[in-house]
Design a protein that fits this description.
There is one protein chain. The chain is of the alpha+beta class and 151 residues long. The chain has 4 helices and 7 strands, in the order ββββαβββααα. Strand 2 and strand 3 form a beta hairpin. Helix 2 runs antiparallel to helix 3. The longest helix is centred in the middle third of the chain and has 13 residues.
């Protein structure tokens, strides 16, 4: 029996207090910039998925920094070209949004089979650069979220 992907994923917006946001460009879709994303493994807590994906995709040890579950869920249709990786009949994925606050821009080590390049951008530029509606919406929340955390 093939191991299918679980239709539950995380989106991790990696940012600094100065509102710089890390975006990574997908290797399989040049020009597609996004935050860290990834599917949950069987039995894995969502926070553990976020920590694992950050380490795999950026080389950053997220355990050393504040990881916040934003308690936001986005449900979206899985692209038809990607559905073969899921059990038959699975059409939708539920994405859980997290934020990772870093003290400053950190060096990034990409997994070349997954990503080609990385950029640190001011939050508004990062929101404009990602074609993902859920990613852009999460990035646009950053100024308000950080202002609320500081008060």
């Amino acid at each position: 029996m093939p191991a299918y992907k679980i239709p539950v994923s995380v989106l991790v917006v990696i940012h600094t207090r100065a509102l710089d946001v890390l975006l990574i460009e997908r290797a399989d879709r040049p020009g597609f910039w996004q935050s860290v994303t990834g599917s949950r493994d069987e039995g894995e807590a969502l926070a553990d998925t976020a920590l694992r994906e950050v380490a795999e995709e950026t080389g950053i040890d997220a355990r050393a920094y504040p990881l916040a579950d934003w308690h936001i869920e986005n449900r979206f249709e899985i692209l038809p070209s990607a559905r073969r990786r899921y059990a038959p009949g699975v059409v939708f994925n539920t994405e859980h949004v997290f934020g990772l606050l870093l003290p400053q821009r950190l060096p990034v080590t990409l997994a070349p089979e997954e990503h080609r390049e990385f950029l640190w951008l001011p939050w508004a530029d990062a929101a404009a650069k990602t074609p993902s509606w859920s990613n852009a919406a999460a990035i646009r929340m950053l100024p308000h979220r950080l202002a609320g955390a500081a008060s």
